[in-house]
Write a structure and sequence with these properties.
homodimer; about 220 residues; alpha/beta; eight-stranded parallel β-barrel; about 40% helix; EC 2.5.1.3 (chains A, B)
């Protein structure tokens, strides 16, 4: 799938899933309609991520859901993932592109227009833009306060690759992100920490789709 | 270089280098006669390790010293390192071999005969065996007490790939490790935390070479 067509993108984080396993969360999110999943789990060993990744690959392939690996190109290749997502402190996008080749999906985090333009110039296929509303589930080096939908709009206007908002987004706050020009939303907590991850995913998908329907032929043209 | 010919193998760890940079430590160790260096630095970001790795590649290539990357195959490829070293919680040796191809050096940590045989069977070119004397510089999942030279001898006898002792080894304690059958010693603190890393390296090299000279045509035949 092309990242332009992702509406809801789940980023895994076992520490937020309560007594459910990451596989349970992903299964429910697939049932609920996610388009992509990112294997993150930074707190676990490479071996654990590899073993989890092999299982995620089976499930996502069967469901037609894209599988992206956070940070590690080697792990992505080892589990035959569709691509890699890197942050500003990971390997540079140009290096990731060289290692993965032209067909893989390469995503990059960006919170400014400058970072976004640089990532696009070096070969990123999509941008994870945020933290839109601030977030409690990412690392401490993330900004505490969100960049807001206005910055998402600036970035979406500045690049031609699709932009996915991330950071504190829920079904209640997804619409302004899409209206601002994001192709979709990436979430951790809104699905992983939800009492019912499947219905939480359905709500997010509906929240993203509505402004897209309304906006068709309208806004941003 | 073949890992059979490594005598002194430096594993980097910035947190033990005091006010010296890792590059300063490596430069001094190269002057003192190391045969290989492993870029470890687990506490730093992939981007930092990449940037440091590019500099280490220049220096080691100029000196004819092998450069190995801990854990990450992608980083090793990005900086054109000679190989990768993995522990029991990193990607499996067979996966590392598949990703790196037949010419790269693949090393694996082992503390038991079973782990050593398995790593060799899956394609490891050398084994880092320990912790020989226990160590304060590795992760908390390392055994607190060392396996001792006797276990090094068991493992060296059980496999045909070269074995390098690691863990708490100093110039004063290196000889029994080599007499036990190790091709050489891998160290962090003995060089990195030394007041003079160059002379510390020279002392280690001498301590490893002496039992080899004495033993030639003698022990273990």
């Amino acid at each position: 799938m092309n990242p332009s067509n992702w509406r809801v993108y789940l980023v895994t984080q076992a520490s937020l899933s309560g007594d459910r396993s990451t596989l349970e969360i992903v299964d429910a999110a697939i049932d609920g309609g996610i388009d992509a999943v990112q294997l993150r789990e930074k707190e676990t060993s490479a071996r654990s991520r590899y073993e989890l990744g092999l299982e995620l690959r089976e499930r996502t392939a069967a469901a037609g859901v894209d599988l992206i690996v956070n940070d590690r190109i080697d792990l992505a290749r080892a589990i035959d993932a569709d691509g890699v997502h890197v942050g500003q402190s990971d390997l540079p996008v140009s290096v990731v592109r060289d290692l993965l080749g032209p067909d893989a999906i390469v995503g990059c985090s960006a919170s400014t227009v400058a970072d976004a333009r640089e990532a696009e110039a070096h070969g990123a296929d999509y941008l994870g833009v945020g933290a839109v509303y601030g977030t409690s589930s990412k690392d401490v080096d993330e900004p505490k306060d969100g960049i807001g939908p206005a910055r998402v709009a600036e970035i979406a206007d500045a690049v031609s690759v699709p932009v996915h908002g991330i950071g504190g987004i829920t079904a209640d706050t997804a619409a302004p992100v899409v209206t601002a020009g994001a192709a979709g939303v990436a979430v951790i907590s809104a699905i992983t920490a939800a009492p019912d991850p499947r219905t939480a995913t359905e709500s997010l998908a509906a929240a993203v789709e509505t402004p897209k329907e309304v906006g068709r032929g309208g806004r941003r043209e």
